[in-house]
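User: Hi! I'm working on a homework problem where we have to compare a predicted structure to a textbook description. Could you give me the structure for the chain below?
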Amino acid sequence: MNPALKRERTNWRGLPGRLMRSLLARRGSIAAPLGPEWQADLALIRDTRKRVALLLNDAAALQIRIAVRTAARLDGAMAEAGVLMGGSARLIAEAKGDALLYLFDVFDTLQGAAPGGFSSEAEVRGHFGTTHGALAMVEALLSPYPDIRIRPGVFPSTASGLGEERFSFVHLDLDLPGATRDALDFFHPRLVAGGILIGDDYKDREVREVFTAFFAGKADTVMPLPWGQVMIVRQG
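Assistant: Happy to help. Predicted structure tokens:
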């Protein structure tokens, strides 16, 4: 084949992809082809979406999978605060290995209950209203996975008795600045060296300010991620 014609055909074959990437870039999005080693992760994410409402985009869900696999090499339990329907907890459970996984969420414990006197409870009620995950549905979704400890109720009171626990991975998806601050106060001192904490809602200004203030002056590695998360790696 004529070399010039061959180059022209090659350029035309790549044109749809280039046009799509250009269009997405103008809209503030990206398209990135993934190699075969990542297809199992994508399949798990898609299967999870079929089972429950998974509010993470694919990039954020994949980031959790990567971080959990990395943290599974360390000693320590894992945790998620803000479970909702259990979709992201399933992504963690599939990659955690033998680590204990603690799950903290109010679930449906506040539905129909009289208001308590805690400011954190009032914040949760005011923000979420009646939108909560059902504990029974989450338990059923995660029933195939061992070593999962579900702690329903308002955090941080639900962390009672875990003062001596150490964590290799923590996922925070609490929406609210006050709850996020409480979670950082509890989990950060208990992260092992090299442990990873991923926070969602980093696009929210108030939540981002909580992270900024908390980690000011600390040696930890803080990595804002372009899809709305922040990843912290505990140093020393």
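For your comparison, note the following. The longest helix spans residues 3-26. Residues 111-119, 125-129 have pLDDT under 50 and may be disordered. Good luck with the assignment!
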